[in-house]
Every structure is written in structure tokens, then in C-alpha cells.
Amino acid sequence: MPAPRFDQLHRQPGPWFVALGGAGMFGANFYLYGSGGEWIAVDCGFALNPTPSGRNSVSVPSLAALERHDIKLSALLITHGHEDHIGAIPHLWRALDCPIYASPFAAQLIRTKLDPGLTWPRLQEIRPLEPIGIGAFQAEWIPVTHSIPESHAIVLEVAGKRLYHSGDWKLDNHPVVGELTAQARLQQLGRAGVDVIIGDSTNASVPGASRSEAAVQNGLQDAIRPCRQRVIVTCFASNLARLHSLADIAFDCGRYAALLGRSLTHMHSIGRAQGYLPGRPGFIGPWELGHLPREQQLWVCTGSQGEPGAALGRLAAGSHPQLSLEAGDTVIFSSRLIPGNEVALERIKQGLKEQGVELIDDDMQPDVHASGHPPQDDLRQLYGWLKARHLLPVHGERYHQQAHMALGRELGLGGLVPANGDLIDLSGHPAKVAELPHGLVDIDQR
Question: CATH topology for 213-368?
């Protein structure tokens, strides 16, 4: 594939699309849109890469394409606050040197990452469903349901085209915390006409519809209520709905709950400050919970992906300073295994079993977790609303993208499967026209 021409990147209206992370992989989401020499980016996340030690190395998208082809970003637009969508900002933002547009919740998560002693570009808080003009682009954030509050799709209007960047999403009429998907606005967009969907492929190979967070709350309560000793639940720290549910479950089951892990306590404090988590029932301090009888203890901890330095890994190794497990305790994995973490997680589970701890995961009881990404019935529903012409499947490994594209073709969508670095012309039927440099940079080497 040839290198891009100067006029493609700096003169022709396009519009143009290139993924510099997030296509053919999980993590490091970083997507560029251009028209007439103006460029914006959507999301700027990091990737976690497993190592033989079980620890994850962290990498961020390379900016070689921007540097080599003199691409200056006018703005960075954020769909939501997960690390694979915002985690690279502290490492790349000073080089990007452009305003950031994000929801209030995502903006607060970003602020907590930035060195207060440095000068940073402007952080602009958006309002959903209120379009913003950014040079040649008009951008509108559309509320969608996901596993973190204030998740959005972003609709871009540029060069006579309407592009729908889905972000991460699912359909859930009972999300426990956060907004419902803005169905009426999506149907309105479909009547107006959508040219291209750039869409989440994570669960495109999975049949059926999404499980609701309300169903997970019931499932967790059913799993916890029969337990006679200490219960530990591990989940993603950013899933505020899960924290809300576990606080309620502890109260209903005659237990007290506490948080183990810095990322959990950090996210909980932001969720409280933003009004997404109530004060009661809530969480007590670990030191206080540790003095109560085992049958009254419910612990929520980090480490669901087998990270050895997280709370669950230290519990499995018997090295946590605030808690030691005993035979008869129960650990519930209210999470989904991210591909690449199998060996590390199995090591953690083995350490727990050797202590006589009972394990429950979503293979044993599927309703203790719900994915935040759309399976096939959700995709069919959304695409029926949007009535788009073309699809670019992103956010997933090649297998997930291909499954997504196959489903799209069944629904009458044209399109193609992009790889990182592919410059795609969106002025007509999406077509790969050139390749830009791409890759990941280990942040420890920066």
C-alpha cells in the first residue's frame, strides 16, 4: 500500500479515516478523521500487553504518522472514560497540543491523571445532543448505555457526509447507573441518513442480546446470599453500576462492604462526587470491616484480570496487608476475561484454590457479570435504527472485525475491515487508498 499523497492529507475534502490504534486489537483506541487538511481525533487510550511474569506492560499509540506527514489535530474528542479510551492522554496530550472535548465525568477522570504543575491544553466539557462546530466538522455526542457513566457515540458531519462513531455501547433498559441509550435521536439520525458507522466489534461474534445490569444485581445477590463466610467480589473498577449493586446487596444480605484497591477507591470517590453513587448504603473502611465476623464481610477488590500487584493477586499470594483469606471464603469474578490474560488469571485462581477458597465465575453462573459491548441482537437493533449505508468495524481483533463485517453485510451494509494505519477515503464507498505509519510505544521507554 503506498504512502499518502500530500493533497489527500492536506487539501482534498474526503472525508478521511485512519485508525492509529484500536483496529485489529483491543486497547489503544485512537481514530483520526480528516477533511481539507483539518484533522480531529476520537479517543486516546492505552493498551495492556501481558508479559511472562503475569504483569502487564502499558503502551500507547505511536504519533509517527502525525509527525511524518505534518498532521495537526484541531481537537481530541472523547467517547467515555475507560482507560483504553483516555489512558494515553497524559503521555501524548502535550505532543498533540489541542483542545479536548469530553463529558463532565470523563473530564474529571482525565483531570485526575494530569500533572497539576504542567500547563495543559483546554479541556472543554460537552453537553449531549448539542452539536459543536470544530472547524470543518460538526460533532454531536449521543448518550449510549455502557459499563461506565456518560458513555457516548459521536456523530460527525463533514464534507457532506454523516459519520457515526459508536464508541463502546450496549442496549440496556435497566442500567442501574447512568443514562439510557438515546433511541429517539438515533432513529431521527436514521431518517436523516447515516453514511458510515465506525463501530464496536467486541461481541460481534456473540449471538443474542445484552444482559442488563439489573439482572446482574439479581444474579450477584443469588450467588452471595447462600455464602456462609467471607465474600470477595472482583470487578472492573470503572463499573459504578456494579459498585452500586454490591452496596445494596451487602445491605440486603446483612453484610457490610469495603473496597480494596486504589483504582476502586479512586473511581468510587469520583462517582460519589458526580452524583452517581449514593451515600447509603455505602462502603466502610477496610480496617473497620476486618474486625467484623467473617459472615458479615463483603469485600470488593481489583485484580479481575489476574494482575499480580492488584488486590486479588495479593490475596491469592497471601501478601495483602489488610486481609487474609481462609478456607470457606468465596471469591466471585464479576468480570469478563480480556484475551491475553488467561495465564495470569489462572495463576491467581490456583493460589485461591490452594487456600480452600470457593470460586464462582461467569462460566459457572453467567448472571454474575454482563458485558458492556453489543452482541448480535443489539447490533441488529441499532443498525435498524440508523439505516446506514456502510460499516467500518473497529475495536476488536481481526476475528471480531470480520464477524462484525459479515453481520453488517447480512443487514445490507457495504464497507470494509480496516487495519491500523489504513487511510480510508469515505467520500463514496469506503476504500483504502494509502497506509500511514502506526504502532505502539511502551510508555516506560518514553
Answer: Rossmann fold (3.40.50)
Peptide linkage before 2 cis (omega within 30 of 0): no
Amino acid at 282: G
Q: What are the two backbone dihedrals, phi and then psi, of residue 113, each rounded to the nearest 5 degrees?
A: -90, -15
Angle at 399 between CA 395 and CA 400, to 5 degrees: 40
DSSP string of 334-350?
Answer: -S-PPTT-HHHHHHHHH
Residue 135 DSSP code = T
Just give the CATH number of 6-208+372-445.
3.60.15.10
Cell of 183: 433511541
Q: What is the DSSP string of 259-314?
A: EESHHHHHHHHHHHHTTSS-SSS----HHHHTTS-GGGEEEEES-TT--TTSHHHH
Give yes or no for a cis peptide into 104 (omega within 30° of 0). no
In angstroms, rounded to a whole number, what is the distance separating the alpha carbons of residues 431 and 417? 10
**C-alpha cell of residue 437:** 505509519
How far apart CA 4 and CA 434 sit, in angstroms, is 5
- Answer yes or no: pTM beyond 0.85: yes
Beta strands in 29-171 (DSSP E): 30-35, 38-42, 47-50, 56-61, 73-77, 100-102, 123-125, 132-134, 137-144, 151-158, 161-165
Q: Which residues contact 446 (CB under 8 A, 6 or more apart)?
A: 60, 91
For CATH 3.60.15.10, list the domain ranges present in the chain.
6-208+372-445
| Cα torsion angle, 219, 223, 226, 232, sign | negative
Residue 148: which residues within 8 A CB-CB, separation 6 or more?
80, 81, 82, 105, 178, 238, 239, 240, 372
Tens of pLDDT, residue by residue, the chain (446 residues): 799 999 999 999 999 999 999 999 999 999 999 999 999 999 999 998 766 665 678 999 999 999 999 999 999 999 999 999 999 999 999 999 999 999 999 999 999 999 888 888 889 999 999 999 999 999 999 999 999 999 999 999 999 999 999 999 999 999 999 999 999 999 999 999 999 999 999 999 999 999 999 999 999 999 999 999 999 999 999 999 999 999 999 999 999 999 999 999 999 999 999 999 987 778 999 999 999 999 999 999 998 988 878 999 999 999 999 999 999 999 999 998 777 778 888 999 999 999 999 999 988 888 999 999 999 999 999 999 999 999 999 999 999 999 999 999 999 999 999 999 999 999 999 999 999 999 999 987 33
Of 103, 93, 169, 104, residue with least CA distance to 139: 103
